[in-house]
Design goal:
The complex is a heterodimer of chains A (292) and B (215).
Chain A: H1 2-8, H2 12-28, H3 39-54, E1 58-63, H4 69-85, E2 90-93, H5 99-114, E3 131-134, H6 141-149, H7 151-155, E4 181-186, H8 190-201, E5 206-210, H9 212-223, E6 230-232, H10 233-248, H11 260-291
Parallel strand pairs in A: 1-2, 1-4, 2-3, 4-5, 5-6
Helix pairs in contact in A: 1-11, 2-11, 4-5, 4-10, 6-8
Chain B: H1 7-20, H2 28-67, H3 71-85, H4 100-130, H5 140-158, H6 167-210
The chains are: A alpha/beta (292), B mainly alpha (215).
Chain lengths: 292, 215
């Protein structure tokens, strides 16, 4: 009984410490766990990869803020890396809100520095031919509607301030129907906005990268194929990194992959705590009833 | 171990540690970091909106139209700008009704553009997804489809309040609760993963970017 009373009165800061150590120890001891790929991520990877045959551009949308970037930033990196290595023309876009612009910029810089502006096949990455960085444009939903009718007219210039008309990648892009796939990476319901307007209204395939919190909700749209695939949380990002590594022979730091060991340890700890908490609750309840 | 030489990484590490100091107890350093975060977020948004909205979409077009004596072009930009400025009348109680004009305009636009695709995406296609087009007892996907159908129907019964929940309606709605509870459990599990991911992200930053312990 002493143990259960001790557990009942345990200062929650000890739990914070235990969770902190469960994250730190697997990280510094370089523990690695195998990452198994789930169908939603595999479907997304395959769809992105199929664009290398059609040469239709991919739009990577960083519709998130720094508060969700630990989960979502590795997705943007993995997707951008995949598109560059597979020779898929790609638009990097900060999304409908202001915060995403800076995070899309970080994705651009990180990936290009990692591969040293050179693809695995030896070709250099050329701005305007391999990728274009789109600027923030105000208007929310109106921006999607604008892209659906007149892509160049909606943005006019790229994020560097150069006219979009002069970039070679724009030769075959007039409106959203010329886009091969939109992958919206977001920690909010904005992915549904892209699905409703870009997907349903303009018929452009839409995929999603989302925080684990939203992933459960999006399975319903995967079932009806309104999302072609999904990366759900850090695990989804780790799966995509793994697919890149095994299919494209890319040797880079797996930002999400190395976090999986910590993720597993914390989950085990939380499961243990939930079981212990429930036992404690019933034992103390029974003890109280006996005393009455 | 290779400590970062970037001052920005040190500042970010300091702010991360001050935010986490709240786990021990509330303190002035935590509140300092909290205020810096709010201020920086607002400052960033204002800067982006100013440089990427106000200047290119209002300032430059108005200036160009004025210099070129293009009066229709000037009106084309000035009218929506003035309508947008009406939002600021919310700060003046007596004239705050003026803010309703741009709100009404936006509501009309968004309703017009949203109704049809929203219904198609969220209702028609989703309902279509629950329809069984054939059942093959040897196929696992057929059984999943059947389970989905039962789940949707029983959950809808749970939220159907026009009939008393007794008899067949009560039993079906009770089954619906099970599906709802399983969905909550899945959401909770995912939420735990999300929150842990945020902690991992920060710890990785401290160990990799700041201290250089992680490769």
């Amino acid at each position: 009984m002493k143990f259960w009373l001790f557990m009942d009165k345990l200062d929650r800061r000890w739990l914070f410490l235990a969770i902190g150590l469960s994250v730190i120890i697997p990280s510094i001891t370089n523990m690695r766990f195998p990452v198994t790929t789930t169908p939603p991520t595999l479907n997304l990877w395959n769809f992105v990869d199929s664009l290398k045959y059609t040469k239709k551009p991919l739009i990577i949308i960083c519709d998130y803020s720094p508060s969700t970037s630990p989960e979502l930033q590795p997705m943007a990196h993995a997707l951008f890396r995949h598109a560059l290595e597979a020779d898929i023309p790609v638009f990097l876009y900060g999304g409908l809100y202001t915060e995403g612009f800076g995070l899309a910029r970080i994705a651009e810089e990180t990936v290009l520095e990692e591969i040293d502006y050179q693809k695995a096949n030896g070709d250099s990455v050329i701005y305007g031919e391999d990728y274009v960085f789109l600027p923030f444009v105000p208007g929310g939903l109106a921006v999607i509607a604008g892209m659906g009718e007149d892509f160049i007219g909606t943005f006019r210039v790229d994020a560097r301030g150069d006219s979009l008309k002069n970039l070679p990648m724009m030769d075959n892009v007039r409106r959203l129907e010329d886009i091969g796939l939109i992958v919206d990476i977001a920690g909010s319901a904005v992915s549904r906005t892209w699905m409703v307007y870009a997907g349903t209204r303009y018929g452009t395939p839409v995929g999603v990268g989302t925080t684990a919190v939203s992933a459960a909700e999006y399975y319903t749209f995967l079932q009806t194929r309104q999302f072609v695939g999904m990366m759900g949380g850090m695990k989804g990002a780790a799966e995509y990194e793994e697919l890149n590594a095994s299919n494209l022979n890319i040797e880079v730091r797996k930002q999400a992959g190395i976090a999986m060991a910590s993720q597993n340890f914390v989950h085990l700890l939380i499961i243990f705590m939930v079981i212990l908490g429930n036992i404690s609750f019933f034992v103390l309840k029974r003890n109280k009833e006996r005393r009455l | 171990m290779q400590l970062s030489t970037s001052i920005w990484v040190w500042i970010a590490a300091f702010l991360t540690l001050t935010i986490y100091s709240f786990l021990y107890k509330d303190n002035p350093l935590y509140r300092f970091a909290e205020h810096v975060f709010v201020g920086a977020s607002v400052g960033w948004s204002i800067a982006i909106v100013w440089h990427m909205t106000a200047i290119p979409y209002i300032g430059i077009p108005l200036r160009d139209a004025f210099v070129q004596r293009n009066w229709p072009g000037l009106i084309y930009v000035a009218i929506p700008t003035l309508l947008g400025c009406l939002y600021f009348f919310r700060f003046f109680p007596k004239q705050s009704w003026l803010a309703r004009w741009p709100i009404a305009l936006m509501m009309g636009y968004y309703c017009g553009i949203s109704i049809s695709p929203s219904i198609e995406t969220n209702i028609f296609t989703q309902v279509q997804g629950t329809i069984l087009t054939g059942f093959n007892p040897t196929s696992l996907s057929s059984w999943w489809a059947l389970l989905l159908l039962i789940g949707v129907v029983s959950t809808l019964f749970y939220f159907f309040f026009s009939l008393k929940h007794e008899g067949i309606v009560g039993k079906t709605s009770r089954l619906g609760i099970w599906f709802v509870m399983i969905a909550f459990g899945a959401s909770f599990g995912y939420t735990v993963m999300a929150r842990v991911s945020l902690l991992i992200g920060r710890i990785q930053f401290l160990l990799h970017d700041w201290l250089g312990i992680l490769k």
